[in-house]
Amino acid sequence: MTTTLIFMAVLMIVVAWWLLRQTAGTEPWQESAMGAITGGHGGRSFIQVDRKLGLFVFLAVATSLFSLFISAYMMRMELGDWRPLKDPSLLWWNTGALVLSSVAMQWARNNNKHEQLSRLRYAVLLAGVFAVAFMFGQWQAWKQLNALGLFAYTNPAYAFFYLMTGLHALHLMGGLVVWCLAAVKLLRGVELSKVNLSIELCAVYWHFLLLIWIILFGLLLST
Amino acid sequence: MIFAIALILLVIGSVAFHFFSPWYLTPLASDWSTIDDTINITFWITGAVFVAVNLFMAWCVVKFRYKKNTRSHYQPENKKLELWLTGLTALGVAAMLAPGLYVWADFVNPPEDADILEVVGKQWQWSYRFPGDDGVLGTVDTRHTTAANPLGINPNDPNGQDDIIVATGDLHIPIDRPVKMLLRSQDVLHDFAVAEFRVKMDLVPGIVTYLWLTPTVLGTYDVLCEELCGIGHYKMRSQVVVDTQKGYSAWLKTHPTYAQTVAGTGPASNIGLSLVEKGRRLSQSSGCVACHSIDGSAGVGPTWLGLYGKTETLADGSTVVVDEAYLKESIVSPNVSIVQGYAPIMPPGNFTDEEIEALIAYTKEGVGSGS
Amino acid sequence: MAIVTHDADEYVAPAAIPEMELYHPKTWLGRYVFSQDAKVIAIQYACTAIAIGLVALVMSLLIRVQLGWPGAFDFIDPSAYIQLVTMHGMIMVVYLLTALFLGGFGNYLIPLMVGARDMVFPYLNMLSFWVYFIAVLVLVASFFVPGGSSGAGWTLYPPQAILPGTPGSDGGIILMLVSLALFIVGFTMGGLNYVVTVLQARTRGMTLMRMPLTIWGIFMATVLALLAFPALFVSAIMMLLDKIIGTSFFMPAIISMGEQLDYSGGSPILFQHLFWFFGHPEVYIVALPAFGIVSDLLSIHARKNIFGYRMMVWAIIIIGALSFIVWAHHMYVSGMNPYFGFFFATTTLIIAVPTAIKVYNWVLTLWRGNIRLNVPMLFAIGFIFTFVNGGLTGLFLGNVTIDLPLSDTMFVVAHFHMVMAVSPVLVVFGAIYHWYPKMTGRMLDDTLGKFHFWVTFLGTYAIYYPMHYLGFLGVPRRYYALEGTNFIPESAASLNEFISIAAIVVGAVQLVFIYNLFISYYRGKEAGDNPWEATTLEWQTADTPPQHGNFGEQLPLVYRWAYDYGVPGATQDYIPQNVPPSKASSGVDNAE
What we know:
The structure holds three protein chains of three kinds.
Chain A: H1 2-23, H2 32-35, H3 51-77, H4 90-110, H5 117-147, H6 156-188, H7 193-222
Chain B: H1 2-20, H2 33-63, H3 79-108, E1 115-122, E2 125-130, H4 158-161, E3 164-166, E4 171-174, E5 179-185, E6 190-193, E7 200-203, E8 209-213, E9 219-225, E10 237-243, H5 245-253, H6 258-263, H7 275-285, E11 311-313, E12 319-321, H8 324-332, H9 353-366
Parallel strand pairs in B: 1-5, 4-10
Antiparallel strand pairs in B: 1-2, 2-3, 5-8, 6-7, 6-9, 9-10, 11-12
Helix pairs in contact in B: 1-2, 2-3, 7-9
Chain C: H1 28-33, H2 38-68, H3 78-114, H4 122-141, H5 171-200, H6 213-244, E1 255-256, E2 259-260, H7 268-301, H8 309-322, H9 340-350, H10 352-366, H11 375-398, H12 400-406, H13 410-440, H14 446-473, H15 491-523, H16 581-586
Antiparallel strand pairs in C: 1-2
């Protein structure tokens, strides 16, 4: 459980630090604190919520999920019947596709002004194409292993391989749904301000999934 | 006011119940009195907190009950009081934790000279194995497990040949000798628990766990499985007899070694016994009686008392008269004709024709008709 | 009388950013069924949770009937018995308490108490309920598949959970795992909402340290749930793979019913680690909202500020953080490396310190208060009593040595029911008596309420206090029958009978409560906007029950914390959070 505990510890430290900053030294009942609407908090009401926060909370949940898988992986690895994985070399190409996809997303994010519209469209499409290519590549890697007679029940290492790549792909698929909606809007020529948020969120999500993939891939390679 | 009285009565009642009710720890039969001491320390500390907090609360409810023209005392916090309470609590917690950790250190480090024996659990019976003259248990593997080798002892391991097998029945251990029990399961999780010994531990398939104790009081004690292990969980019982050294040695001699079971010789061999007696022994060593009672009481499977000749209703609604043919079918392929109300979970019996005959004879004549 | 001084600047400029359009339902379906209004969703959650909870309550009575009068009913056979035990536990912990506290109270109270118009992602919120609803249906479906529902215990330990010696090891366990996975997905949607709403949608002036403790409790519980439920998700998925495609994550080489299975090398203990990594925080997912709500009930009905508010907030946070490093205290005798026992016993007993601080502060809130023993207050004080009892027995089980004789006995059952069933449920009742007037505009009947309280409180104590002593005797849990044991005296059977009678009485009295809920909706006394004279924002709404959008034209501005009771110099003994300092003492509407 070490991996998970490290993640939890980091998260808890961040939360504690943030809370401390919010709460240290305040005496909520004090008269001086009564009339003032504090500067640090804008007193925002049900308006213009920063939707990115919602995404970040979700990323924390997803990180918890993947770190638990990694913990389980490492604990299962210590048992006697573990045989190391034969990594399909195709995975390197897939990783490349995912990196390119993430780069394209970042490019789209940086070109969100009106005058950069054509570049934006191009970048968003490219990001999607590379992401789909990655998924296709992962599928091929599964098929290669299957052809070698290496199924999920063959050995726990393969079980984890199928499980973790499958789960990662499932997350990416969720991202592609949002990407699809944004791409359709872009092609239709909808007001840019209505697409920008989706692209922003997609970009953050893409980087997150790339990071997770690199960690998973590193784990698969090294064991 | 009523509320305060109720709270006070509940506190007094709880304390009185603790001291005067007949229900408390079963008398100790091992040297784990340190565990009881830890419990007592914890009882005194938690009991004091329980009484103090609740009586204070009851007093508050009376003293500060609603009065129309008064107001509560405005006091957001009291750092000093809170610090004192935190400190005292920490002290109390430490006073409970320290002995706990001390005794636990004792539990995880069995003495070097402790006797070894193995406890094997499977749904829903207990078996035991002693290391024999060489003092070493032979290696085991599930792949070696057969009807003739129920504990899965490795036939090629010389250490295993003299292992003494207690496939079913009581366990005897000598008094005043520390004993380390190695625990192992063949199927699901179980838990070896004897209330009088205080210690317990799960049996986990795939690994070997342990516990140790020194029995100090002669007697017979119930062994219970305390980790839910399926339908027959509550029937998974055995008994452990704390015996004199002499009685223990004599008892051990009545059980065969692994080599003897393979050869079909030894103290438990069947030669010269009646068919019914063979069946009786077989029903115990194969674990039939874990699920089928012989006294008419309800169990995981139908009771054998009065079974022969009875008309049973099957799961599909049809009826069948229990005769030799039906009994044989039920032993060889038990899940074909299930009696209504029972789950199809009985393992097919891997017996010779002669053994089946013995079992049927036992059911028919040994157990009786029940009337 | 001293005058409350304040900063000169009382004027607050209107919010700079325009309000977002609220969701407006156009059809009946959109208003009541697929509603995106948090208050409607809250009631949907609560009704579903209570409905399935009643099923689990009936199960518990059947369990008690079997224990009190073994063999009285033919249909409770050994396999039905452990199915009842399993489903009762799982439903109560996950589908009732978690859903009710977070989905029910969270949805209703968060927007109202922080001064928001609604949850920030209303559509997701609606989806959250419907996924939960489907999860409940899948769970219910498992009763009707061949073999019935799972009988593996609510902990669903492999290997037995998926092997034939346990009832429901085919369809039952698969549906159970699928239902749990759905529940987690649904909960994550809701949980995102609760967290982001608390962080971003608070009204002007509602700083974190001015939030009522109810919100702190629900907020921290949601954070725990978001981080801990993935562990259950992971273990459920891995067990499904073990069951369906034959992987060996948790399954070692096994001979089941005389048959060698294809599994090898897996570890049942790995499952237990994952399960309890979820399972222990789950205890606090239920407890923290209860802690928060009870703090507010005590403060409001004792007419006194909560004692040591900052300590209370930090205690909630510390308990939440510590709850992630105590999980293996459920596994002292599981066969894990016994040396872990030292670490986990220590962390477990440390968690007693912040918990004790909370108890002290509750009691000190009563001290020098002006206590009104309204029905919600009865439940709140009842909670302190049972929680102290259950918390202290936790010190027995958390201490690794004492766990040796007591684990897997009725002592454990008594402990966790006292601390995780009776205590939170008393808070749930108190909260319903407290907020029902806001939800419906009418008071619940007082006499019926008092009757309900006394029978429930005394009855549950009569059930669970003596049960600890069965545990001391060594009576194991999850046992269909005890016949044939020598060390358990005959008298234990009469004690079991007594407990069963108490359980049936308590169960029956809940009908009075449900009757009260219905009758008061039509005949209850008119409540008015603020019957308890409370300070928090939900009592300051323009309408009762609050309309969609909660606060009418103008969102409230918050000038103070939620606990201004008995403030010296104020005109009333309470000052609502949205009363500006100048009006608190001069008295605009001081009907003292």
